[in-house]
Design brief:
With about 170 residues, the protein is an all-alpha fold. The chain contains ten helices and no strands. Helix 2 packs antiparallel against helix 9. The longest helix is centred in the last third of the chain and has 23 residues, at about 115-140.
Length: about 170
Amino acid sequence: MQPRIDYGAAAPAARDAVLALENYVRHCGLERSLLELVRLRASQINGCAYCIDMHTKDARAEGETEQRLHALSAWRETPFYSDRERAALAWTEAITLVNRDHVPDDVYQETRRHFGEKEIVDLTLAVIAINSWNRLAISFRAVPGSYHRERAAGDVRREGARASHAAR
């Protein structure tokens, strides 16, 4: 795979706009483990190898089990996820695949049972953020395997810059 464009170098203000959304999501109060599941599931749906690699590494570093990571693509068929996580995963899939069913009412109602209004907005923004990163990484062919989690997790600017440099 040949990377195409370093989008962060070509349009730093655009990268910074997506990073600002990511920074909000990281500090919104939703559980880090839940956010990693959401990021990984959306990346699986979108077929973003770079982001699948990144969020698998990040989830492991946060203590996620191999069993849950391996079963995520078939989460409905396993007992490994809480009801709250299941609602978040269904919401993630509905938003990522919004062209199919326009986020069905039953998915919303189940999500509403497990999340407050602000949390649903925050969860939606998390899905929007990862879908944005997926589209950037796929479009500009970020190289899977080039992501290396830094010890100082939480520096979103550095991670976003690294993702755009992977597209070189």
